[in-house]
């Protein structure tokens, strides 16, 4: 039955639905679209001034319709202008049997051709503007092509003879009626906007609509039955099911039918106690609406007693799933296609995993899963890290993972193999990528020989996988090698050739060699205070603008290629000849010095002690040029004038005149005037302390009295904050720096605390602990000390390192370690030796420390309790119902609670097996340092 194009279809459907009567031919004819067999227009049909109607439309009914409706000038042709205004084509009840010519209407947005015709093929590949198409009620129609109609929103092809329908590109499709056809399958996985579907009375038995969260209605046989399952329709002999009444809200009730596990339902209602994983049922009505389902991006089903996550398939936007430390026997994640991170470690029962549908995965953790024998990965172009140690896996095919960078190994050394396949034999797990694969550099002894330098890179620039990816390498434009006690013993920074450095600070180390030949983009270099550095070659660094090499043992410096230098500090005892004639800005500072000065080096050590000179000039555009050097050095600031070749003239023979005898002048008798009173000089700053984020700016202003001299500015730690000569402070990395303004022997200071970018809210409970421990050098951050990542889990290696620093970095009593997974070149080697010697840790077994394992809350407080000397807890009460006297951590937790180190969660629980996040870790350490203060070295 045809329906006139002007009928208000949705109004008709709604009215009939409310009255309890729905006739399918009415409903689906309402918005079905015409599918006419399109062909290229033959040459004799088209003219320069338009399309010949007689030639282009062989069907007489169709041809007459075109002449009547669209040939406005009645010249027998369709101009481009006439084609452009033909937005709606209605061939209903016209008896059109041949749709040839429909391809002419490239601007058509709505086509109707349903009902009683002999059309067998409809091709709309040229009608790319089509939004509404009706082509149903035609038994002769066998072929329908709408693959290119990407703007199509409404399609009705019901009661036709089609057996195939490709709608994979129709991402805007909202309404589909295909009941009464010969279809046996239907793929709507790409039709995420679909809200109405009817595919009854055909060969379709099941339709997967997991990716159709807006779907609210599926038609039934004559009537409908109400239900709430919008995910999978089973079209049985009794007919198909209506998912939700037309006027209902789409969603899923939080009941056993859809979420069988009670603990999982409780989690969806409440989330995690710390709020890191929020509840899914935000309004607490035990019903998950479409918006609530789509809002869930991360789920934590670990450590909560959950044994089944059936229902997780409804969360189609899920990106992160944490299922570690659970007894969930199986995972079906085939419909969670947006997952990027999956953590399933510490599960003793899962035997196999099929992750072939999770093609967006970037990180996969399947560690400590002894029953796991088989994992199917499939095509995962973004997968970078896959961890499988302590599993039963013997082989793993990663041919579909071209960018994988790391697989955690169980053995003693990393073996570099090809990028395509891993074979895990004899418990050995291999790092996947060799250097020549071109996708990164491992942080190992081969590429970074100095162990302390490797530690610095890992803790401050790496993402905790001991591997620099291409993306990480590209970010290494600035490297600051810290001068504190952790890294002052660095003697070799080989490996910097892999970095596209623009700025390098490597001062106060023990460097005896510095190769910069592979860093042509270097703009700033500070290698000062390296007493063993005897030579420096910067001839390849032609972009260099700032060079500081003072207090080194270099005796020669060639800056002839560094014509862009504006700042040169070379106060070196053995550098006695400096040619700056090819450096116009430095030569200008030397010749036209506006602020000459000199000083004595701040050291009695022979190699550093010298008297230096300094020259400064400000250009017309306020650019500053600076040059400092050993006062004993010979400075060549201009090219020598060539000697003349002619013979010199004869020396003059004139006799010099006799010097006049001076006559003494009588001493003045006038009383001398009194010396003027000297003005009292003072300087003050508008701030004595301030906080700024890493990368932030702070303008300090100096108030000066008693002198007109210029103020000089200096930072006590340029790694943390720099200051220009106008008092503008720039935060570089988290820490504290004193900014000093000086003039005429007077000075004023401002303590500037540079915050991590992600720890800047004073209301966060970890704000003060993080900055307190950062200032003390106990904890460090990521990304060049600019981010702390408070939500990241704290590993056992990190925890003992922090405790060791808190104790003052004492020297371990032993020089050997029984743990096979703690290597001498590891940054945590000394901390672990110390912690074992103090009885703070005994490892996870006799031969394993498990440095990469996440530190639990129970382990953390136990470490602190042992560090405090295992104090007694006589008379103390136990406030936590999940901490038993038989637990190894019982005394530690009760003690920590009494010292206000831990507070627990609502409901009187401590959650001992909960993973300790970095923000919790710094809070524990801070409270320990403040409340206990019994660190024993």
Description:
Among the domains are: 1-35 and 104-248, Alpha-Beta Horseshoe (Leucine-rich repeat, LRR (right-handed beta-alpha superhelix)); 440-636, Leucine-rich repeat, LRR (right-handed beta-alpha superhelix), CATH 3.80.10.10; 682-755, Immunoglobulin-like (Sandwich); 791-931, no CATH class. The strands form 14 sheets. The chain has an eight-stranded mixed sheet with strand order 29-30-31-32-33-37-36-35, with helices on one face. A seven-stranded parallel sheet has the order 4-5-7-9-10-11-13. The chain is built from 16 helices and 47 strands. The termini are far apart. Helix 11 crosses helix 16 and helix 12 packs across helix 13 (829-837). It is α/β, with parallel strands linked by helices.
Supply the key terms:
alpha/beta; Leucine-rich repeat, LRR (right-handed beta-alpha superhelix); Immunoglobulin-like; 16 helices; disordered N terminus
